[in-house]
Design a protein that fits this description.
Number of helices of chain B: 6
Oligomer: heterodimer
Strand order of the largest sheet of chain B: 2-11-10-6-7
CATH superfamily of the largest domain in chain B: Immunoglobulins
CATH architecture of the largest domain in chain B: Sandwich
Distance between the termini of chain B: 31 Å
Number of strands of chain B: 17
Radius of gyration of chain B: 31 Å
Number of strands of chain A: 21
Shape of chain A: elongated
Shape of chain B: elongated
CATH class of the largest domain in chain B: Mainly Beta
Structural class of chain B: alpha+beta
CATH topology of the largest domain in chain B: Immunoglobulin-like
Largest sheet of chain B: 5 strands, antiparallel
Radius of gyration of chain A: 36 Å
Helix content of chain B: 25-40%
Structural class of chain A: alpha+beta
Number of helices of chain A: 22
Strand content of chain A: 5-15%
Largest interface: A-B, 71 and 54 residues
Largest sheet of chain A: 6 strands, antiparallel
Chain lengths: 685, 320
C-alpha cells in the first residue's frame, strides 16, 4: 500500500463518522453544565456530520457559513457570560471552537489534532463535577479516543479490536495510582484561577429571622464526623456549636464585638481595638473539673467560603493551633474554600460551667430599649407568676407546646418588632424565630441568655462508622445562665407540638426529637431500617471514601499517607527515588504485558488433543506413536467429507508447531475456528 | 562541501557504525530510534496544561486524568517501539538496470509476531505501508533511481511507524550489504562525436552476402551448389550451405576506440546504447574494449555479458 504523505491524506466518510462520534461522546456531558442554547450549539456540528454520513450527503459546509458560525458562537458565549475569562466562559468558548472544528476536518491530521485535544477537553469536565460516575465516563472516553487513534493510524489490513486498548488501560492503572499517591503536590495553587469560588451555604454570620419567608433546607452534606472513642451518642442530643449571637438590635442578631477572641477577623480588627482585651481568660482552666464525658472526633467539613468550624456540645480542644473562643466557638484561619478536616475534643453535656463577668452579663441581658415592648411586658407579667426561673422556663416551653405555634419553613415576614409580631400574631416560624424570641423573653426578665446556631442531629452511617450532618440539619437554640454557675442549653423549637409542624418537613424536624410528644402517626417513619436505608448509607459511605481519598487528596493528606506507610522519617528525596525505581520496574513489567499476546506451544497441543478426542468418539482412533500427518491423511480417506478441513488444520498446525519460539494468538484462534468448522461435518456411519 | 553534506555524511557514518551493513537486518534496541511526532508534543502540552489546571484548581480528578494521559503517553513509547523491533528485513538482488533508470528492490519482511502499519522507503522515495502477519513473509518492492554504472550498494532504507497512537515515530535505517549492477546509461552517439567509421545505426550492420564466411546453415532448395559445404556432407551431416554475409561496414564489433575525442564515460554510454539497440534488433555484435574483446554473437545473455563488461569497465584506461 502506497503511503500518501501525512499532510495530504484525506479522511474517508467512515473515519469522519467515527471522529464525530468520539467528539459527541466528549461533548455530551458538558450539556449538563452549559446554558441550554450553548449546550445545543456544541452538539450541532458533530450531529450534522453524522447526519450527512447517514444520509449519504457531502458534509462540506460553505466557508462563509462556517465563519458566521464561529463568530456567533463566540458572541453567544460573550452574551451568556459577559466575558471569555473564567472557568465557565473559558470552557464554553473552548468547547464551541472544538465542536466547530469538525466541520472543516477533512484531513488525516485534523483527525489527530481533534483526538489529541479531546484528552484535554474531557478533563475539563472535572471542573464542573467530581462525581465518581464521571470518572468512569471519562475513562470510557479515553478508551474510545485511543481506539479511534489506533484505527486512524492503522492501514486497515489487520483488524483492530478493543482488546489491546483495554489491556493498555489495565496496565496503566498501577501507574496512575502510584502517580496519584506519590506525585509531589503543591499546597496551594500556582496562581489564583478566575472563578474558582463556588457559593457558600449553611450558617450565616448574622441572623435576621423576621426577614426570611422562605428557608430552603437542602440535602447537601455539611460535614461528616468520625468518633475516635466508642461513645454512642443519642443523635437527637447532638448539638453542633457554630456561632453564638449575643447582640440584638431589635431586628438582627450578631456576634458581640466586645469579645476580643470572637472578632479576630482582619476586617473587624479596628472595631475591637477599643474594647477590653481580656474579658474571660480563665474559661479554659476551669474546664477540667467539669462533668460530662470527653470525646475526640474528626470532622470533615464541606467548603462554606466562611471561617466557621463546628464542634459538638462544648469544644475544649481543637488540634492545630486553633483557639477556642470564650463562647465555645472556633474558626479557621482562612475561609474554608475546600473540604477541611480537623480533630476536636468536646465535653458532652448540655450544661457548661463557666464564670460570668459583669460585662458578659450585661451583654447577655441587653435588649434595645425601644423595640418589642409587648413581649417585655408579657414576660415580666408571666415571670411574676412563678417562684423560680426554672418554673418560668418550663411554663414557656409548655406555652409553645399548647398554644398554636407552628413550625414552618415559609413563615410570614414579621413586622418591625419582630418578636412581638411573632409571639403574639403570626406564631409561625422556624428555629431562629423561636430561639430569638425565647432569648428576648429570658433577657426581659433578667436571665442572661443568648442564641447559638449550628447543626443539630446527624445520621449514623453504620457502614462507614461516621455521622453525616446535612445542611438541612442547621439549627438555632438558646443558652441561658442558671444559678450563676452554668450555661444551660434549651431548645424551644423542640417544644412545638408535632401536629403543628409543616407536614413536608415533619420527617426532618421529627428526627430532632420532640420535647413533649411522641412522633405522631402521620409521620410514621420510625424503625425503618429498610434496604433503602442500607443503600443510602452505602452510597454516602462510598461518597465519603471518594471525597476523603480521591477528591481531597492534597499535600497534607499525602504526607499523612506517607506517615501511615511509615515513610515519614525517610527523607523525601529518597522516597521519590524509591518510587521512581518502583515505577521503572512497573514500566518494565508493563512493556512486557502490552506486547501482542503470544501463545505457548502447550496450548496448541491441548487444542490438538481435543481434536483427537472428538475424532476418537467418531471412530477414528489414533494409534500411539503415529505421526499427526499420517493419522490425518488416514482419517481423511475414511472421512472424505472432512478432507479439506483436516488438511487446513494440519497445515496450520505445522505452521505453528515449527515456527519460531512463540506463536501468536491469532493462529491459535484460527485453529479453534477450524476445529469448530470440522465439528459441523457429519461423519460417515 | 557544504556543512550540511558534511554533517549528513558524519551522521550516516555514525548510523552505519551502529548498524553495520548486513545481508539481512533484524531491528533491535540498538538500531532503532524513537522521537515524538508533533502530535506527541501537542499531547505533552495538553498533559502539562492539565497538570497546571489540576494544581491551580486543586482538582484531584484532573490530576487523575493528567496521570492517566501521562501513563498512556509513556506506555505508547513501548508500544510504538515494539511495533518495529523484531522485524527482519532481507532484500533480494534486483535485476541489473541501466544507470539513470529505476531499480526495483524486493525486500522480504518477516516477524514472529504481528506488526501494524509499518512504512518502508528509500530516502526521499515514496513509502510503502503494510501490516506484517506473524510468521508470514511480506514482500515489498521498493523503487529507487540508479545514478551510476558499475556496482551500486543499496541506498539506506528507512523503516518507520507511528502505530498505535501517532504520538511517537519510531524508525530505523537499514544498511544492506547488497550490491546491484548498473549498466552505463545508454546515450545515442551523435554524428559530431564520432570520427571513425560512420554508419547509420538504424540500418543493419550487415546483410546476407558473398564476401565473408559467417557460418553453416541447412541447404534450402534453389541455393547455389557452389556454396554447399561438402566436407560436412561427407561426414554425414546432410547438405549444408556455407553462409556468407556482406558486412556493410567493417566492425560489427563495437569498439571503444571508435569514438576518439569523446570522454570516457560517454563512450561507454554510446556503446551501451549501441549494444542495447543491436540486441533489440536481434543482431549479431561484438564488443571491443581496450582490455576486453567479446566475440560477436546474439541473444540476451550475450547482451548482458557485453553490458556487464561496460558496467565494470575501469573509470579510466591507462595510456588512452
Amino acid at each position: 500500500m502506497l503511503m500518501i504523505p501525512e499532510g495530504f491524506r484525506q479522511l474517508n466518510g467512515g473515519a469522519r463518522k467515527e471522529l464525530a462520534l468520539s467528539q459527541l461522546m466528549v461533548l455530551l456531558p458538558f450539556v449538563l453544565y452549559l446554558p441550554p442554547v450553548l449546550a445545543a450549539l456544541i452538539l450541532i456540528a458533530p450531529l450534522w456530520v453524522l447526519g450527512c454520513y447517514y444520509l449519504n450527503k457531502p458534509s462540506v459546509m460553505n466557508r462563509w457559513v462556517m465563519v458566521g458560525l464561529s463568530i456567533s458562537a463566540a458572541a453567544l458565549v460573550l452574551y451568556f457570560y459577559g466575558t471569555f475569562r473564567g472557568k465557565e466562559a473559558g470552557t464554553a468558548l473552548i468547547l464551541m471552537m472544538f465542536s466547530l472544528k469538525i466541520l472543516e476536518s477533512f484531513k488525516y491530521r485534523d483527525q489527530k489534532l481533534l483526538l489529541t485535544l479531546s484528552f484535554f477537553i474531557s478533563a475539563l469536565l472535572f471542573l464542573f463535577s467530581q462525581s465518581f460516575l464521571l470518572v468512569i465516563y471519562v475513562i470510557v472516553i479515553y478508551v474510545r479516543l485511543l481506539w479511534n487513534l489506533i484505527k486512524g493510524n492503522s492501514i486497515g489490513q489487520q483488524n483492530i479490536n478493543l482488546r489491546s486498548t483495554l489491556r493498555l488501560l489495565a496496565t496503566s492503572i498501577p501507574f496512575v495510582v502510584l502517580l496519584f499517591l506519590f506525585f509531589p503536590r503543591l499546597p496551594s495553587p500556582l496562581w489564583k484561577m478566575p472563578g474558582s469560588n463556588s457559593g457558600g451555604m449553611g450558617i450565616s454570620d448574622s441572623m435576621t429571622p423576621g426577614d426570611i419567608n422562605n428557608l430552603s433546607f437542602n440535602d447537601e452534606p455539611a460535614f461528616r464526623v468520625k468518633m475516635k472513642s466508642k461513645t454512642l451518642i443519642n443523635q437527637n442530643q447532638m448539638y453542633w456549636r457554630g456561632i453564638v449571637f449575643e447582640r440584638f438590635d431589635g431586628l438582627t442578631w450578631r456576634r458581640d464585638p466586645s469579645r476580643p477572641d470572637e472578632t479576630i477577623g482582619q476586617d473587624e480588627m479596628q472595631n475591637s481595638n477599643s474594647q477590653p482585651q481580656n474579658l474571660i481568660q480563665q474559661e479554659k482552666e476551669s474546664v477540667n473539673n467539669e462533668s460530662g464525658d470527653l470525646v475526640e472526633y474528626d470532622v470533615t467539613m464541606e467548603p462554606t467560603q466562611q471561617r466557621w468550624m463546628f464542634g459538638l456540645d462544648i469544644p475544649v480542644n481543637v488540634e492545630g493551633d486553633i483557639p477556642i473562643s470564650s463562647v465555645g466557638t472556633f474558626r479557621a484561619p482562612k475561609s474554608i474554600n475546600s473540604r477541611k478536616r480537623y480533630t476536636v475534643t468536646s465535653r458532652i453535656s448540655n450544661v457548661w460551667q463557666d464564670d460570668l463577668s459583669t460585662l458578659e452579663s450585661q451583654i447577655n441581658l441587653a435588649l434595645p430599649e425601644d423595640s418589642n415592648p409587648l413581649i417585655k411586658q408579657w414576660a415580666l407579667e408571666k415571670r411574676a407568676e412563678f417562684g423560680s426561673n426554672e418554673e418560668f422556663i418550663n411554663y414557656l416551653l409548655r406555652y409553645i407546646n399548647s398554644e398554636p405555634y407552628f413550625y414552618t419553613l415559609t413563615p410570614p415576614i414579621m413586622q418591625e418588632n419582630m418578636v412581638d409580631d411573632f409571639w403574639f400574631n403570626q406564631r409561625k416560624g422556624f428555629c431562629e424565630h423561636y430561639a430569638a424570641s425565647f432569648t428576648v423573653i429570658l433577657r426581659a426578665v433578667g436571665i442572661p441568655a443568648r442564641v447559638v446556631t449550628g447543626y443539630q442531629g446527624g445520621e449514623y452511617n453504620s457502614i462507614g462508622d461516621y455521622y453525616l450532618v446535612l445542611q438541612k440539619n442547621a439549627h438555632a437554640w438558646v443558652e441561658y445562665w442558671r444559678d450563676d454557675q452554668y450555661w444551660v442549653r434549651i431548645d424551644p423549637t423542640a417544644a412545638i407540638a408535632p401536629f403543628r409542624i409543616d407536614r413536608s418537613i415533619l420527617n426532618d424536624v421529627g428526627s430532632r426529637g420532640f420535647l413533649f410528644d411522641e412522633m405522631p402517626e402521620i409521620g410514621q417513619v420510625t424503625e425503618r431500617i429498610s434496604w433503602m436505608d442500607y443503600v443510602e448509607q452505602w452510597s454516602d459511605n462510598l461518597n465519603h471514601f471518594w471525597n476523603e481519598w480521591v477528591i481531597d487528596f492534597d499535600q497534607t493528606r499525602q504526607w499523612d499517607f506517607f506517615e501511615q506507610i511509615s515513610l515519614k522519617d525517610i527523607p523525601k528525596p529518597i522516597v521519590y527515588i524509591g518510587v521512581l525505581l518502583l515505577s521503572l520496574v512497573l514500566f518494565f513489567w508493563a512493556s512486557r504485558v502490552i506486547r501482542p499476546s503470544k501463545v505457548k506451544k502447550d496450548d496448541i497441543e491441548k487444542e490438538m488433543l481435543k481434536i483427537f478426542r472428538w475424532l476418537e468418539k467418531r471412530g477414528f482412533v489414533k494409534p500411539k506413536g503415529q505421526a499427526v500427518g499420517d493419522f490425518f491423511s488416514e482419517t481423511a480417506q475414511r472421512f472424505p467429507q472432512a478432507e479439506i478441513q483436516l488438511k487446513k488444520l494440519l497445515d496450520n498446525y505445522y505452521l505453528m508447531r515449527f515456527a519460531g519460539r512463540e506463536i501468536d494468538h491469532d493462529s491459535l484462534m484460527r485453529m479453534k475456528q477450524q476445529f469448530s468448522q470440522l465439528k459441523t461435518i457429519q461423519p460417515p456411519e | 562541501m557544504s556543512v550540511k553534506v558534511l554533517l549528513n555524511k558524519k551522521l550516516e557514518r555514525w548510523q552505519k557504525r551502529r548498524s553495520p551493513p548486513q545481508s539481512d537486518v533484524t531491528l533491535n534496541q540498538r538500531n532503532t530510534y524513537i522521537f515524538p511526532t508533533r502530535y506527541g508534543f501537542l499531547m505533552a502540552l495538553m498533559i502539562l496544561l492539565m497538570g497546571i489546571g489540576a494544581t491551580n484548581y486543586q482538582n484531584n480528578l484532573i490530576f487523575f486524568a493528567t496521570f492517566f494521559a501521562l501513563t498512556i503517553g509513556l506506555l505508547s513509547i513501548v508500544l510504538t517501539f515494539n511495533n518495529l523491533v523484531a522485524l527482519r528485513f532481507s532484500p533480494h538482488e534486483p535485476e541489473a538496470v541501466f544507470a539513470g533508470s529505476k531499480v526495483k528492490v524486493p525486500i522480504s519482511v518477516t516477524s514472529e509476531k504481528a506488526h501494524n502499519a509499518v512504512s518502508l522507503s528509500f530516502k526521499h522515495g515514496p513509502a510503502q505501508s503494510f501490516d506484517v502477519l506473524p510468521n508470514t513473509e511480506t514482500r515489498i518492492v521498493l523503487v529507487t533511481q540508479c545514478t551510476k554504472r558499475g556496482h551500486n550498494t543499496l541506498p539506506k532504507v528507512k523503516v518507520s511507524s507511528i502505530f498505535p497512537f501517532g504520538f511517537l515515530q519510531v524508525w530505523s535505517w537499514l544498511f544492506f550489504s547488497m550490491d546491484y549492477l548498473a549498466y552505463p546509461k545508454p546515450i545515442a552517439p551523435s554524428f559530431g562525436a564520432t570520427t571513425g567509421h560512420q554508419q547509420d545505426e538504424h540500418s543493419n550492420d550487415f546483410q546476407s552476402g558473398t564476401e565473408d564466411f559467417y557460418g553453416l546453415k541447412k541447404y534450402e532448395a534453389g541455393e547455389s551448389l557452389s556454396r554447399i559445404h561438402w566436407k560436412s556432407y561427407a561426414r554425414g551431416k546432410g547438405l549444408q550451405t556455407k553462409e556468407f554475409v556482406d558486412y556493410l561496414s567493417d566492425p560489427n564489433v563495437f569498439d571503444y576506440s571508435q569514438f576518439e575525442q569523446v570522454e570516457h564515460e560517454l563512450r561507454l554510454s554510446y556503446l551501451s546504447y549501441l549494444i542495447k539497440q543491436a540486441a533489440e534488433n536481434n543482431e549479431v555484435f561484438g564488443l571491443k574494449l581496450p582490455d576486453i574483446y567479446i566475440v560477436p554473437s546474439k541473444g540476451e545473455k550475450h547482451m548482458h555479458e557485453c553490458l556487464k563488461a561496460l558496467a565494470l569497465a575501469p573509470t579510466q584506461y591507462e595510456g588512452i
